[in-house]
């Protein structure tokens, strides 16, 4: 179970409103679609993660600061003796595994 559930990022909420209210430039529209796909990928990962049958703590969208530098972690899964860190990307196309 997620201790910190996923929510739509504020920036994506704003971009959705702007997209509905005005014509975005191609650069702005590409950025909006990039953010939208990223969020969709995280939601899809959450659906897979919900199948975990282990006792663990799940933290989504952590914003941390170290030495005055901010960074974001998509998903952190804490088990009793191990920590898994996930940076989720949603890609399209053909992928070959070697």
Descriptive terms for the model:
2 helices; 37% helix; alpha+beta; four-stranded mixed beta sheet; 98 residues; globular
Put the structure in a nutshell.
Helices cover 37% and strands 28% of the residues. With 98 residues, it is α+β, with helices and mostly antiparallel strands.
Largest sheet descriptor: 4 strands, mixed
* Major beta sheet, strand line-up: 1-2-3-4
Q: Looking at the structure, what is the overall shape?
A: globular
Number of H- or I-type helical stretches: 2
Q: Element order, helices and strands?
A: EHHEEE
Q: Kindly report how far apart the N and C termini lie.
A: 34 Å
| Secondary-structure class | alpha+beta
Poorly predicted ranges: none
Instruction: Please state the average pLDDT score.
Output: 86
- Give me the count of strands: 4
Q: Provide the domain count.
A: 1
Radius of gyration: 16 Å
Q: In percent terms, what proportion of residues is strand?
A: 25-35%
Q: How much helical structure, as a percent, in the residues?
A: 25-40%
């Amino acid at each position: 179970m997620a201790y910190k559930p996923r929510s739509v990022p504020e920036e994506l909420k704003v971009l959705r409103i702007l997209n509905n209210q005005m014509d975005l430039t191609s650069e702005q529209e590409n950025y909006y679609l990039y953010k939208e796909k990223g969020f969709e990928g995280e939601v899809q990962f959450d659906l897979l993660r919900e199948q975990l049958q282990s006792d663990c703590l799940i933290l989504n969208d952590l914003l941390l600061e170290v030495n005055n530098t901010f960074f974001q972690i998509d998903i952190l899964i804490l088990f009793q003796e191990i920590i898994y860190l996930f940076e989720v990307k949603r890609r399209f196309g053909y992928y070959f595994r070697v």
